[in-house]
Design a protein that fits this description.
The chain is an alpha/beta fold and 408 residues long. The protein contains 12 helices and 17 strands. The chain has helices at 12-29, 38-43, 57-64, 97-107, 124-127, 131-145, 162-178, 197-209, 228-246, 250-255, 274-286, 327-333, and strands at residues 46-47, 68-75, 85-86, 90-91, 111-117, 149-153, 183-189, 215-219, 257-262, 264-265, 271-272, 291-295, 369-370, 375-378, 381-385, 389-390, 402-407. The strands form 4 sheets. Strands 1, 2, 3, 4, 5, 6, 7, 8, 9 and 12 form a 10-stranded mixed beta sheet that branches. The two termini are 30 Å apart. Mean pLDDT is 87; it is low at 1-30 and 343-357.
Length: 408
């Protein structure tokens, strides 16, 4: 575990109350478009703008009619501290790369939400001293990009940390209060019965703080799921959890419920096809759910023939598809109609692996600390660290800290 670092103190709550709304307006003046309808933010698929061979968002917009993107992920700095970064390495304060992506999207009439957290890395809720300090860090992101929407992706290892979850939920409440009209989603793990113990504790924390976001979304994948029926079953059970936690009736619970899927092959080898997405989409719209999104646009394209179906990739789906097939379900959820016509499948470029017999890097050690870019060998493959990690053996999991560089 990394040492937790404190940043701004409780006094930040006073300054946030004074500047929150003004800061958002100022951000809008520096380049944001007018807000889209909340339905577009609710439909925005995840996009890693600087990693996993990011696709051209303008091309996706032209091909599908998509208008909103969920950019991932904002984290605490790998070296410690309570300031927002992209992926733990690129400070938001000096960012130009993500800003360029946002400018491209907005120039075509679209907009973005930003997702904070995700799997791996240190979250600001872990690193900041309290909810006010955490909110102050996130307010920098809202102001920098003139955001109208934000997603709190609370999962391992943060959601196992009671204090960190309290900071995140408290920060979400502060941002909601200080930025009128801000669309706020909270995303957490999905299980066959809705969500697990830690997800339920997060809901109880939200209830205790009197915080209600636009939606609580679950991710029904990587947990023994098998197609759409298992996912809609989990969404039904999660609705029951929301009702019992907050005292809502069924319709109110569905109006505050969201789905966040994974297109194609999941990290654990589950498969979710276009037909599965259509089934879940029909369920979501039929129950007036608030959100329908997926991980990720970087994966919304077909793998090369050699890879198709055989592995989980951060840059392709491992199922047969045309490029951006899955994005079209998001467009439909937003209430728009994707362009018609037969698209031409776009082959996904894949990294060239090190040929068998090539030199192996120094062997991975459970006791060593690895930072972004460090390399090690494990099970006759070379691996590159995506972020700070220790005692996490390299695997092919998309959301893990290691990128497979091929056999050695």
């Amino acid at each position: 575990m990394r040492r937790l670092h404190a940043c701004l103190g409780a006094a930040a709550a006073v300054s946030l109350a004074a500047v929150g709304t003004t800061a958002l307006v100022a951000g809008n003046a520096s380049g944001a478009t007018s807000a889209l309808s909340n339905r577009w933010y609710a439909a925005a698929p995840y996009l890693m703008p600087t990693d996993n061979e990011p696709p051209d968002p303008a091309a996706i917009m032209d091909a599908t009619g998509l208008k909103a993107f969920q950019l991932a992920f904002v984290l605490a700095p790998d070296g410690g501290g309570c300031s927002p970064t992209w992926g733990g390495t690129s400070p938001v304060s000096s960012d130009t790369a993500v800003q360029s992506v946002i400018n491209t999207i907005r120039a075509k009439g679209g907009d973005v939400s930003v997702s904070i957290g995700g799997y791996g890395g240190t979250k600001l809720g872990q690193a900041c001293s309290d909810a006010a300090a955490t909110a102050a860090a996130y307010q920098q992101v809202l102001t920098k990009y003139g955001l109208h929407a934000i997603d709190f992706d609370l999962e391992e290892p943060e959601y196992e940390n009671t204090a960190a979850v309290r900071n995140e939920i408290g920060a979400a409440k502060i941002l909601q209060q200080n930025n009128p009209g801000l669309y706020v989603s909270v995303t957490t793990a999905g299980t066959a019965d809705g969500t697990g113990w830690f997800g339920k504790q997060m809901l109880l924390e939200a209830k205790s703080q009197g915080f209600t976001p636009n939606n609580f979304s679950i991710m029904p994948f990587d947990g023994g799921f098998n197609g759409a029926a298992s996912q809609t079953g989990a969404l039904t059970d999660f609705n029951t959890i929301l009702r019992s936690t907050f005292g809502w009736d069924q319709a109110t619970a569905y109006a505050h419920e969201g789905f966040s899927g994974m297109n194609g092959r999941s990290d654990t080898g589950e498969y979710f096809s276009q037909a599965d997405f259509q089934t879940v989409l029909d369920f979501a719209t039929g129950h007036n759910m608030d959100r329908f999104t997926f991980w990720s646009l970087n994966r919304d394209r077909q793998c090369s023939p050699a890879d198709n179906g055989g592995r989980t990739s951060g840059t392709c789906s491992s199922v047969s598809q045309n490029s951006w097939d899955f994005a079209k379900y998001s467009v439909k959820f937003a209430g728009a109609t994707p362009p018609t016509g037969t698209p031409t499948p776009t082959p996904t470029p894949t990294p060239t692996p090190t040929p068998p017999g090539g030199a192996c890097k120094a062997a991975w050690s459970a006791d060593a600390v690895y930072t972004a870019g460090n390399e090690a060998s494990y099970n006759h493959h070379n691996w590159k660290a995506k972020w700070w990690t220790r005692n996490e053996a390299p695997t092919g999991a998309e959301w893990g800290p290691w990128q497979d560089e091929g056999a050695c």
